[in-house]
Amino acid sequence: MDKVTIKIPRQLYEKIQLLVEDSGFSSPTEFITYVLRDLVGEQLKEKQAEKGAGDLTNDEIAAIKQRLRNLGYL
Amino acid sequence: MIRPHGGRLIDRHAKGEMREAMLAKANELPKIQVNERELADIEMIGCGAMSPLEGFMNRDDYLGVLNNMHLASGPVWTLPITLSVKPGDDRQYKTGDQIALVDQGAILAVMDVEDVYKVDHLTEAQKVYLTDDPAHPSVAFLQSLTDTYLGGPITVLNKVQHPDFNEFRLEPKETRVLFKAKGWNSIVAFQTRNPIHRAHEYLQKCALEQVDALLIHPLMGATKKGDIPGDVRMACYKALIDGYYAKERVAISIFPAAMRYAGPREAIFHALVRKNYGCTHFIVGRDHAGVGTYYGTYDAQYIFDNFTREEIDITPMMFEHSFFCNACGNMASIKTCPHGKEERVFLSGTKVREMLAAGQRPPVEFTRPEVADILMKFYQSEEA
């Protein structure tokens, strides 16, 4: 797999080294990849959910808002 | 905003030219007259309230729900959503058929049959309703069905028409837009098929203290004989909201589902479906969706322990039995009140009905006077 190098503060790296000991992760790199993958997945999920009402177009949302206004909800 | 169950809000409504073409073809298809429960299910599936379902369950989903409370594709699902061949219909349905689902002659939807399978109603009753007692309304309902089910996706061509409350009927995509427009990020849903007395008002307001808004979501699909009619309940809800709720923090909308009286399993179903409407929290009180003595008082809360938080995603808010305590001088629950039963204002359903029928208001600590007056009028009418 193609990889890139990312720089992080040494102090943080050393803390991660401590965490990794006896954790089941073979290296700080493996640990960081795991954590980032999890975080990125969550962020993407949230971004997708931001759409809220699914795949509605702007016109559809405007029509729904108009109905909600007519009914007194808005 | 919270993701729909299964990740995507389903929309099974045909539109435009496609709808016209399907309608023309549907007239020539074999027709199945749906029952009241299937009618509500078509409405719910069509608008995405039952996401991720796209139609009536095939055998794999049906068995997955009965045996493991999960769909074959993985998501949690606790109630079978099924279509039965009707008594006297001797057509030999097979995979690949198309059928029209109709109500009183009007075409509602077309179904692509993916599965034709036999079921054992006794097993279904025992697994879902935890009883095979025919006195249970849904066991009796199952006994009225044939043992052949049809599974497959549906396409809704004509929405189910309702004679009443259309101004309160919002689909999931509409409640989602509403919540977003209001700036509500956390919304607690309250399921009800009864008038709201002080105890339930207390649960709602306790929940509302922790979230942005409350959605009162009364079930208006088929209910059992003896339940209070929808128009009476709606009048009660409106009176209560007008007099006692912060209007900028509450919305009321109809929940079109049919009642199953499946207790714990229905509590999970009610929660998952409210997630599709955009709610982030769901109130689970005592004996949720119960009937008679078929379920333990808090079984509908314990069942949530069978699933991970990620699987359910919507947050259940569990509440103990609540009441007005004369010694405390306020509403409380067995969790917060140290006093004995003699201090607690509790009336059985039978007692309340007797009082109302006799034109006697229950104490204000039990029900709001405005609600009591509406119910008194109902119980003194011929309709009751």
Describe this structure in words.
The complex is a heterodimer of chains A (74) and B (384). Chain A is mostly helical and 74 residues long. Chain A is built from three helices and no strands. Chain A has helices at residues 10-20, 28-50, 58-70. In chain A, 4% of the residues are buried. The mean pLDDT of chain A is 85. Chain B is α/β, with parallel strands linked by helices. Chain B has helices spanning 16-26, 36-47, 59-68, 121-129, 137-143, 172-182, 198-208, 230-244, 264-276, 299-302, 309-312, 349-357, 369-379; strands at 31-33, 55-56, 83-84, 98-103, 106-112, 115-118, 148-156, 187-192, 213-218, 250-252, 281-284, 315-318, 322-325, 330-333, 344-345. The two termini of chain B are 42 Å apart. Chain A binds chain B through residues 45, 48-56, 60-61, 64-65, 67-68, 71-74, and chain B through 1-4, 8-9, 11, 48, 167-168, 170, 173-174, 176-182, 251, 278.
Secondary structure topology:
The complex is a heterodimer of chains A (74) and B (384).
Chain A: H1 10-20, H2 28-50, H3 58-70
Chain B: H1 16-26, E1 31-33, H2 36-47, E2 55-56, H3 59-68, E3 83-84, E4 98-103, E5 106-112, E6 115-118, H4 121-129, H5 137-143, E7 148-156, H6 172-182, E8 187-192, H7 198-208, E9 213-218, H8 230-244, E10 250-252, H9 264-276, E11 281-284, H10 299-302, H11 309-312, E12 315-318, E13 322-325, E14 330-333, E15 344-345, H12 349-357, H13 369-379
Parallel strand pairs in B: 1-4, 8-9, 8-11, 9-10, 11-12
Antiparallel strand pairs in B: 2-7, 3-7, 4-5, 5-7, 6-7, 13-14, 13-15
